[in-house]
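Notes from the 1:1 (GR / supervisor)

We went over the backlog. Supervisor wanted to see one worked example end to end before approving the batch request, so GR pasted a single chain during the call. The sequence is below; no edits were made to it. Supervisor asked that the structure be written out right there so they could see what the output format looks like.
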Amino acid sequence: MNKNIYLCGCVKNCEPFLLKNLENMVIIGELFNDYNIIIAFDNSNDSSLETINKFKKYNNKLILLHNQNKLSNNRIINICNARNNILDKIREINDNNYEYFIMMDMDNRFHNKKVNKDLLKTVILNNSNWDSLSFNLPGYYDIWALSYEPFIYSCWHYFNNHGQNQEYTKYVREDIINKLNNLKKDELFDVYSAFCGIAIYKINKFINCNYNYKFKENLNLISKKLIETNIKNYFNKNIEEKKQIEDCEHRYFHLMAKKYNQSKIKISKYSLFI
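Structure output shown during the call:
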């Protein structure tokens, strides 16, 4: 494809899965005219850094962002900072020949799977009706980053005695799987936010956005009417705002792009890894 892409991931203690994930990034990158891999690395207790450095010796397209700052005890703060560091690097490079970037989890989600190359070619070449595109995972869907009407917030924002609403969790996960499975062949599902381990983005629709883990910051990106009509009345429960501190960093990133750039955020019914 006559387009360039950045392939991006955050690494901390990912060594068992890291080489295969990097190899999958190369497979994706080689579908494009040119690519760079951007890895944001936080100091680890395993040999992740050694694996990255060995990989760099035979692939000079890898850009390593080695965070030297002290890490938080809170994982979501660290990964939020790492993703923002990647965005800063893309802004710094400022290469207009690069049209896309992919953000990909570097853990065990995809390391034992093959890239569905035909799918990626199809969505890039034949369907321009998206600015962010994530993908299905057959049999399971990760709803932490997911927002669509009427489910703007996740089960972690509806408390019961166990810390989350199990009924809500089960219903949403079954609902999204059912909706994706029932899409037509080339149809995409429109959402406010979705990730499920990997997503591809059009740079010009997201480069002015950032990741943020603070729940109340996310609230500012959603209209009160939408919250009142579609969220607070569901299961007759309210969002308990005073108890909320954290939210998924992807949700803020997507909501910001949707509000300020009118970005089209979609999910494919198919999996990018098979």
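Supervisor's comment: The radius of gyration is 18 Å.
Batch request approved.
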